[in-house]
């Protein structure tokens, strides 16, 4: 039997391009979330600045997030540009806990402008935590039924995405999440940037939310930066 899993979707205040400032707001959100796992938006550590330098998982600037996870027992899923061992750059999810950070997923379905710099990932990602199998996605991934299916085929219980949308795309984000939930009978959680998030996302939509397997919204944030939504998966 799996124990209940408390999950939070956070949309912290973002300073595009300022990793140190964004690390601080991430650490604050983790401490406030009171959740076992905290999901953050796409490229949350840099904002949606496609020219921002790649980060390394051992970047010392990440220490406040590691410390917040150690203090709360949380795992944080944060967004960042990273370079792999071959030098290819990816839009990635880092999983951070009390032991440090590791790359857990590369975005597979890139937007047009992203293709100028980044290389798409080739395989779905799953994070195992407390007996739960958590599928991973970044923004456009969550709008591709093939991605839902390939990730769900790995035996996941929930599908977690970091995203960033313009305000007029909020309904699209909701539609995609409900589709993934009901098509595969899984929980879905989307952390979506709010307020100033860099690039074309000024403001970004916010409205981070968590959906049950029947497509019902069980928790939702508003459109302001700094908001958090939380739910317990059973």
Written account of the structure:
The protein is of the alpha/beta class and 234 residues long. The chain has a single domain (5-233), classed as Nitrilase/N-carbamoyl-D-aminoacid amidohydrolase, CATH 3.60.110.10. The chain has four helices and 14 strands. It has helices at 19-33, 63-72, 145-152, 170-184; strands at residues 5-11, 37-39, 75-83, 89-97, 100-106, 125-129, 132-138, 158-163, 187-192, 194-195, 204-205, 209-211, 217-220, 227-233. It has a six-stranded mixed beta sheet. Strand 10 and strand 11 form a beta hairpin. Helix 1 (19-33) runs parallel beside helix 2. It is globular and about 40 Å long.
Give the proportion of residues in helices: 10-25%
SSE ordering: EHEHEEEEEHEHEEEEEE
The name CATH uses for the topology is: Nitrilase/N-carbamoyl-D-aminoacid amidohydrolase
Name given to the CATH homologous superfamily = Carbon-nitrogen hydrolase
Structurally, the number of domains stands at 1
Counted beta strands: 14
Give the integer mean of the pLDDT values.
97
Rg computed from alpha carbons, rounded to a whole number of angstroms: 16 Å
CATH architectural designation: 4-Layer Sandwich
The unreliable regions are: none
Summed up, the helix count is 4
């Amino acid at each position: 039997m799996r124990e209940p899993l408390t999950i939070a979707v956070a949309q912290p205040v973002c300073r595009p391009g300022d990793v140190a400032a964004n690390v601080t707001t991430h650490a604050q959100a983790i401490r406030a979330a009171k959740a076992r796992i905290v999901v953050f938006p796409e490229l949350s550590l840099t904002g949606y600045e496609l020219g921002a330098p790649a980060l390394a998982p051992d970047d010392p600037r990440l220490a406040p997030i590691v410390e917040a996870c150690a203090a709360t027992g949380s795992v944080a899923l944060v967004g960042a540009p990273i370079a792999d061992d071959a030098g290819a750059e990816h839009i990635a999810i880092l999983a951070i806990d009390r032991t440090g950070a590791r790359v857990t997923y590369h975005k597979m379905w890139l937007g047009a402008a992203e293709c100028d710099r980044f290389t798409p990932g080739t395989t779905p990602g799953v994070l195992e935590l407390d007996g739960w199998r958590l599928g991973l996605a970044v923004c456009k991934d969550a709008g591709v039924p093939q991605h839902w299916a390939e990730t769900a085929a790995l035996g996941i219980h929930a599908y977690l995405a970091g995203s960033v949308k313009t305000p007029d795309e909020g309904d699209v984000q909701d539609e995609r999440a409900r589709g993934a939930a009901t098509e595969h009978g899984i929980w879905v959680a989307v952390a979506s940037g709010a307020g100033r998030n860099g690039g074309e996302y000024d403001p970004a939509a916010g409205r981070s939310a968590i959906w049950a397997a029947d497509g019902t919204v069980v928790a939702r944030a508003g459109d302001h930066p700094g908001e958090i939504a939380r739910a317990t998966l059973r």
